[in-house]
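Support request from a user on the community tier.

User writes: "When I paste my structure tokens into the form, the page sometimes reloads and wipes my input. The last time it worked, I copied everything first. Here is what I submitted, just in case something in the input itself triggers the reload:"
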């Protein structure tokens, strides 16, 4: 049995875990990443909002990703529920609040590859073994499946919605399963998207087309699980016909252009984002339906806050209780508010209840018609600034 002592052990090698390892190392702590590399491609993309892009810029990897990213300069919401209370489509434009774009859409696989390459360049140790056991007293100890024992002053658990570290730490998690699944894939299309992300609100859930460079977009189709399975098994011609119908042919003729994936929808909330010498990040601490691009952006905000606190600690104990308390207070409030918003919208679509339709329609109508209200909503939803990175001038995430 081999023992290794580090300041910070990060468990989970998805985008949030990779980013957390880079942030911890950048703050000057001896860091080790633990977990097997992700291998499966499922056509998923990440619509990274400005704060997440700033975090990637602070790591120096955004220029390489930008050439493969699609700008989200406008966000259009179309009520396609068939309700009597349907408002007209509402469009949010980034330029209205002084941004070049709300964010950029990047293929998940490309994001993971860029983060992993930077981790290797920084020579941050990465053990690809699974965690077999976890315990904590004066320090945290991780026993890995390969027999290695890692001793750390802080563990950052970014090991996903079924987090073994969260479970071993005894942090309660409450899960709600929705009668929905998200079908994901990549598309080529006939007409330009104009850097507009379009979200059709339908009874079974949102149908969202998100721009990629050129005549390409990603699709996130939230629907009934059996329908999602049929889409997964459909021929390219059948899938193209279904997408054209679902999108009212706003992009003209389409053709599938990448792998397909299916994710059952659930929401997970935790009793605490922290434990003794433990911080949860990403889906280990919160899971939301894929509506409004909140999921991964919340995870990146976790990393940004941890990075800020570790930098301020200046080499002091990274697992100290006061530091973890500050992290928990900062993250739990934002996560709770955004979770309530996403859950409320999703439930209102599923309910098919006329009064709820009226409230949702009134809300969208007010956003579309009242400029100050619309701009306030855009700033709150899309333009928050990362506390991790330095302030940037206007147009901070441009590709140059």
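"...and here is what came back when it finally went through:"
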């Amino acid at each position: 049995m081999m023992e290794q002592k580090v300041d910070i052990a990060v468990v989970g090698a998805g985008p949030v875990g990779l980013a957390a390892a880079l942030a911890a190392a950048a703050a000057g702590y001896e860091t080790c990443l633990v977990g097997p590399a992700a291998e499966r491609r499922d056509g998923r993309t990440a619509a990274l909002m400005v704060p997440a892009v700033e975090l990637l810029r602070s790591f120096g990897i955004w220029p390489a990703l930008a050439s493969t990213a699609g700008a989200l300069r406008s966000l259009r919401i179309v009520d396609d529920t068939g309700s009597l209370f349907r408002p007209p489509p509402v469009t949010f434009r980034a330029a209205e609040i002084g941004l070049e774009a709300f964010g950029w859409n990047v293929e998940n696989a490309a994001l993971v590859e860029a983060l992993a390459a930077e981790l290797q360049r920084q020579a941050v140790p990465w053990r690809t073994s699974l965690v077999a056991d976890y315990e904590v007293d004066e320090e945290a100890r991780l026993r890995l499946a390969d027999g290695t024992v890692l001793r750390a002053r802080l563990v950052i658990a970014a090991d996903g919605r079924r987090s073994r570290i969260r479970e071993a730490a005894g942090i309660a998690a409450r899960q709600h399963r929705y009668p929905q699944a998200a079908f994901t894939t990549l598309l080529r299309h006939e007409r330009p998207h104009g850097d507009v992300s379009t979200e059709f609100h339908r009874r079974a859930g949102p149908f969202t087309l998100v721009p990629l460079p050129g005549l390409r977009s990603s699709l996130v189709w939230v629907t009934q699980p059996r329908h999602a399975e049929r889409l997964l098994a459909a021929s390219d011609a059948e899938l193209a016909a279904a997408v054209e119908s679902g999108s009212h042919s706003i992009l003209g003729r389409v053709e599938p252009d990448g792998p397909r994936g299916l994710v059952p929808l659930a929401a997970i909330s935790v009793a605490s984002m922290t434990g003794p010498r433990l911080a949860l990040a990403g889906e280990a601490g919160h899971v939301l339906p894929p509506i409004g691009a909140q999921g991964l952006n919340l995870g990146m905000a976790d990393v940004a806050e941890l990075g800020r606190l570790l930098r301020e600690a200046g080499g002091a104990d990274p697992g100290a209780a006061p530091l973890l308390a500050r992290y928990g207070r900062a993250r739990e409030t934002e996560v709770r508010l955004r979770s309530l918003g996403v859950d409320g919208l999703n439930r209102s679509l599923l309910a098919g209840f006329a009064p709820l339709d009226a409230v949702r329609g009134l809300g969208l109508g007010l956003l579309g018609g009242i400029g100050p209200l619309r701009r306030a909503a855009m700033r709150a939803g899309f333009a928050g600034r990362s506390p991790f990175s330095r302030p940037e001038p206007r147009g901070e995430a441009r590709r140059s």
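Agent notes: The reload is a front-end session timeout and is unrelated to the input. The mean pLDDT is 87. The two ends are 49 Å apart (CA to CA). Escalated to web team.
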